[in-house]
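Notebook p. 47: complex prediction with succinic acid.
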Amino acid sequence: MQLSDAGLLKTDLFIGGRWSPSNARYDVIDPATGQTIAEVARATEESVDAAVTAAQVAQRKWRDTTATQRRDALAGLADALLAHEADLAAILTAEQGKPLAEAAGEIRYAAGFFRWFAEEARRVYGETIPAHRPDARLLVQRQPVGVGAAITPWNFPSAMIARKLAPAIAAGCALVLKPAEDTPLSALALAELVARADIPSGLFSVVAGNRDDASRLGTALCLDPRIRKLSFTGSTRVGKLLLEQCASTVKRVSLELGGNAPFIVFDDADLEAAIDGVMVCKFRNSGQTCVSANRIYVQAGVYDEFTSRLHERIDALVVGPGADAGSTIGPLITTAALKKVEQHVTDARSQGAKLITGGKPHQRGGTFFVPTLLTDVPDSSLMHSEETFGPAAGLTPFNTEAEVVQAANDTPYGLAAYFFTTDLARSWRVSENLESGMVGVNTGLISTPEAPFGGVKESGLGREGSRHGLDEWTDIKYVCVGGLGQ
Ligand code: SIN
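Predicted complex, structure tokens below:
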């Protein structure tokens, strides 16, 4: 990995504003080559304790800063990310695998959260309420929740941290981060930028660890009574466990969990736009996003044409290491991820789905998978009940709007949903009837710092991004001032 600022490649823990080495280390693997790219220090429960102690001290000072100071700190971080975009993207691609252009896009997306919450830091408004008696005045203040913890995923190793850290800092909170086992280097590079910024030591700490450490570190964060909020992005299974653990100290909890996004193409859709939409929605990050199109329903009148046009576009994707210019589909994160995609394809075919292209590991070996298209995927298949999290698109025909909305909602998940239509009345009706926290109408790309990201049903609790994302890091305090006379 060639970096112009080699100081961004950090491998120790970042606790209380200091780099903290450890003899216990684990290998971080480049998924494109299977080679070790770094040996990162493993945190223990003691590391978590030290990070929380430092966070408490820092937060007590930080909560008393002005909104303008917090704005300046966040704007500085946004600038720092953009100034180091190429290096941060190279680190991200090396540990996560996505094509460099996508990695650079993620760094800009991450910077966007720091920029957005820099601006929002100055808008943490309270309220006055008409009082219930003449001698009183009723006020509502928003105060920082205190020390927070975040557990972040490997699929967006930079942006998912920014989406949590930026509102925490804006609100006056501190954050202890446990990054994904597979992608700690992006988190540690961000910590280095925080260390260089005008932000108090201890306000942000990073406690990394491998798969064996994950549940111990997660438990330590959930059970620590000094941590008042947990923000997690990851699977619904792990989210439920963390929620249970957080109950013991009644923490605030934000959960961005699994999805099973329906993507619906009506007969009256602009087909070119729908194909662009499904390409970005299904194949961005090799299909490894929580908001990926998972069940693609296409109305009978355009089914054959949509299939053949999508087939052409899928065959034009270029599979290769993310660091190679021209690659548009990188490797999957692990062998287990590859096996899951294979299993979904095999299961769909065994239930009558037709393979149009792909359907197998790529000849490059490792965790590369050939971009895949299947048709006639039945609702009983694994592709419809679980996130495939890979570059395999499965189409299912439908006849009526009522039938497809019912099928789309027939899942315990409700993160994102998409549909394409040129009928104005239908665009309102369907978006209102879909049971989902986010809906893309005539677009397959909905993520942006200005908008509230999050799900309903078993896809999560709370929202990230937007002004609502800041509310998640504040508590409401009601103040009743009495004895004021008439
Ligand atoms: C995710 O997959 O959790 C995040 C995707 C996004 O922000 O677009």
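Notes: Residues 100-120 form the longest helix (21 residues). The mean pLDDT is 98.
Next step: compare against the earlier run before touching the bench.
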